[in-house]
Amino acid sequence: MRPEEYQFFVDFVSRRLGHELGPDKQYLVESRIQQFLRPELFAGLGDLIANLKIGSDQCLERKVIDALTVNETFFFRDETPFQFLRNVILPQIKQQAAKKISPDHSLKVWSAACSSGQEAYSIAMLLYEDGFASAPWVPSIVATDVCSWAIDQGRKGTYSDFEVGRGLGEQRKLEHFVHQGDCWGIKPRLKDMVQFAHFNLLEKFPPQAPFDVIFCRNVLIYFDVSNKKKVLETIANSLKPHGWLILGGTETAMGLCDRFVQPKGAATAVYQLKR
Predict the structure, then answer these.
(1) Chain centre to alpha carbon of residue 15
(2) What is the pLDDT of residues 208-262, one digit of tens each?
(3) Could you give the CA distance from residue 167 to residue 66 in angstroms, rounded to a whole number?
(4) Nearest residue to 115 (alpha-carbon basis) of 81, 159, 146, 85
(5) For residues 257 and 263, what is the distance between their CA atoms, to the nearest angstrom?
(6) 3.40.50.1820, 3.30.56.10, 3.40.190.10, 3.40.50.150: CATH of 80-273
(7) What would you report as the CA-atom Rg of the chain, rounded to the nearest whole angstrom?
(8) What is the DSSP string of 70-133?
(9) 49 phi/psi in degrees, rounded to 5
(10) pLDDT in tens, 156-186
(11) Is the link from the previous residue into 23 a cis peptide, with omega within 30 of 0?
């Protein structure tokens, strides 16, 4: 791949997703673009780029974006955010509901950049285990991503032995999944809690906002500073008063969006909308 060809894909991804592809990602682009370089599809890399430049084939553009999207995920990834959700956020939500004269027992969570759904279903497991999946509580989890095949897998709710084995102990696996041939299917009581949708974080309004809690982990690292600010502003506008934001362990909202505060004793990369 010539430098100018790689630069085309750098610009292509930046325009559509706001993601930055550095020089170290050329090998990834080359390997993932190979699936399109078959004689029955395109004569070569130049032909593929020419078609993308025309911009009339949205299906092709979506497939290329899907191919170039990073989708690393697993159940209860990095554990600490889930512990904070269970030990701090959920008890506070219960306390706040109990203090209200007309208690609001809805509980809405957004799993942004959810990939193939493991994060969203991990949240659903915690809500179920902590009593938020039955009356009077009305929980809902919105899981969004820009990658079409990842969203499709999440909707199906089926995972391989390898995928289920990443982050899940035997007890949770047997409690929340049904063995289906060579796969494991998430049980309906959790699957019905999660709604999947295609959403680009550079858009302004996610479906079903506002939310009590937003997980947006390990995705800001792909944006430049300008787009990080845009995404954080979208998230702030999508939270209920005093709602919570959970970022990835190496990500921060400080210096990028002044609408968040990090509570004392909060886990790394946990923020609350300012009062």
Answers:
(1) 20
(2) 899 999 999 999 988 989 999 999 999 999 999 989 999 998 899 999 999 999 8
(3) 25
(4) 146
(5) 15
(6) 3.40.50.150
(7) 20
(8) -----TTTTSHHHHHIIIIIHHHHHHHHHHSSS---EEEEEETT-TTTHHHHHHHHHHHHTT-S
(9) -60, -40
(10) 999 999 999 999 999 999 999 999 888 999 9
(11) no
* Structure-token match 């063995």, residue found: 179
Our CA angle for 195, 199, 192, nearest 5°, is 5
Amino acid at 141: I
Percent helix, strand, coil in the chain (nearest 5)? 45, 20, 35
Tokens coding 225? 């500073």
Q: Domain locations in the chain? A: 3-68, 80-273
- Kindly report the pTM of this predicted structure: 0.86
Higher pLDDT, 69 or 125: 125
Residue 243 near residue 212 (C-beta atoms within 8 A): yes
Hey, what amino acid is at 43? A
